[in-house]
Design a protein that fits this description.
heterodimer, A: mainly beta, six-stranded mixed beta sheet, four-stranded antiparallel beta sheet, 52% strand, B: seven-stranded mixed beta sheet, 0% helix
Chain lengths: 115, 112
């Protein structure tokens, strides 16, 4: 069975400190993995994606994620948080063998930034 | 610029009414989707379509209907049979299986 688990429902960091949002997945196949960001009352914006090329993926706004097959993880990081990073973040798994209906969203992590 | 346009941004519905949410894309994507998002929750799939004139039910299709007469358009109708329609609705499209999704900016539906 395919699944994705975001380990923290809420993360709070101070501005200028590192950000770590954790995501673990379960997939019988080599999946595509994505991180999306959602600001209040907005749609989801793609931050970055892993599709079996380099395991360290760089995205927009200074975010990056590392695909670790041995740990089945795809954690999102940023070296220095900015106030504008405050938003909801979703980890998404797409088993590439499947039809579109099988894409799986994590439950989301709300990131708060303290001044 | 290519993208997905959802309209209206805010919609108010009286109980017992049907309302239709619009979703248009100019990305030439084959697949389109409708999701529902409730406060503090993830996204739940309502309907999806992988090709014109064909669509399938997602996890929470009851009380909703869709059509896919054109590749660019995938409107969602929230019928009076949907007992709790107040939510944020997101439309998305993708080029096919395994690809990432492009999302619209959403429609917030409120029952008054």
């Amino acid at each position: 069975a395919q699944s994705v688990t975001q380990l923290d429902s809420h993360v709070s960091v101070s501005e200028g400190t590192p950000v770590l949002l954790r995501c673990n997945y379960s997939s019988s196949y080599s999946p595509s993995l994505f991180w999306y960001v959602q600001h209040p009352n907005k749609g989801l914006q793609l931050l970055l994606k892993y599709t079996s090329a380099a395991t360290l993926v760089k995205g927009i706004n200074g975010f990056e994620a590392e695909f670790k097959k041995s740990e089945t993880s795809f954690h999102l990081t940023k070296p220095s948080a900015h106030m504008s990073d405050a938003a909801e973040y979703f980890c998404v798994v797409n088993p590439r063998y499947s039809s579109a209906s099988k894409i799986i969203f994590g439950s989301g992590t709300r990131l708060s930034i303290r001044p | 610029d290519g993208g997905i346009t959802q309209s209206p941004k805010y919609l108010f519905r009286k109980e017992g009414q049907n309302v239709t949410l619009s979703c248009e894309q100019n990305l030439n994507h084959d697949a389109m989707y409708w999701y529902r998002q409730d406060p503090g929750q993830g996204l739940r799939l309502i309907y999806y379509s992988q090709i014109v004139n064909d669509f399938q039910k997602g996890d929470i299709a009851e009380g909703y209907s869709v059509s896919r007469e054109k590749k660019e358009s995938f409107p969602l109708t929230v019928t009076s049979a949907q007992k709790n329609p107040t939510a944020f609705y997101l439309c998305a499209s993708s080029i096919g299986a395994g690809g990432g999704y492009t999302f619209g900016s959403g429609t917030r539906l409120t029952v008054v």
